[in-house]
Design goal:
Blueprint lengths: L3 H4 L11 E5 L7 H12 L3 E7 L32 E4 L2 E7 L3 H17 L5 E8 L11 H11 L4 E6 L13 H19 L9 E7 L14 E5 L23 H6 L4 E8 L8 H11 L3 E2 L12 H5 L8
Parallel strand pairs: 1-2, 1-5, 2-4, 5-6, 6-7, 8-9, 8-10
Antiparallel strand pairs: 3-4, 7-9
Length: 319
Amino acid sequence: MRSFLLLLSALPLFAQSANVVLSNDDGWAEINIRVFYDMLTRASDSVVLSAPADNKSGTGSSDAPATPLTKPCEFNSCPTGSPAQGFNASNPRLNYVNSYPVTSMRYGIQTLSPKFFGGKPDLAVAGFNVGANLGSTTLISGTVGAATEAAKEGIPAIAFSGTTGSQTAWTAPVPQYAATYADLSTNVTQTLIASGKPYLPSNIWLNVNFPASSTTTCSSPRSFKFVLSRINSAGSGTAADVKTCGSTRLPTESTVVGTTGCYASISVGKADTKGDASAADQAVVLGKLGEILSCLPSSGKGATSGAAKRASPRPRCSM
């Protein structure tokens, strides 16, 4: 897998960029979202961060009006008595909302986006989360809640989550895993943007999960391979998935992330159910992200980069 950071200096001046709203559930001052913000900005995207004032992990699609702060924001990033919504004094694109991830994402789309972009954002991204969001965990994940809220509002959305990490202040030195996950998240985001509008079908979001990363294992973006996956296990009556890697049944994202060899999963979900999308919607994503997709090892053989792309024609997206 190529490193997006290494490609930045080689990007042509006409490289595609987008107006992006960025949120999470770990809080606006957690280091992951700040590193991701910096990387997307370096990739020439116009980004506005709108995230909870405090850690709201595990709150799913909870929603409530924002209220003034009765205690400091996380990591003392804003004082007691601060207003319900606020921003960084040196960078007004960094915003907090004293409520849930869903509320924060909606504020970014409906209030901040018109202010900074003059209209709706092109894309919404959430994360990357501290900890993976696999399978049924998507139902309670605030990161997923933020992404699916955006999709319900008609904004293409991606939720990113990383297995490694712990709550860390934005002022700390950037951990190795955070730099790696930010690079990978930006790679997926920019590949989708480069595929052209509409980025995703209506009511569709992507769930991206990264395996553990350390200084000795999966330490570089180059070590990773992306695999198209499904959120939940398929039952005997489950309709076929898109055909790729020689099969009409995609591996679960838990299987992908749990496979030795630094495999990251990309699942296609429906925003209204947070469950798996149809084969037709999976095919759209396969066509758009095919150049970065691979297959899981089979019979002891390693995956071939781009195998998923060659296994199925590149369909056109329609909304």
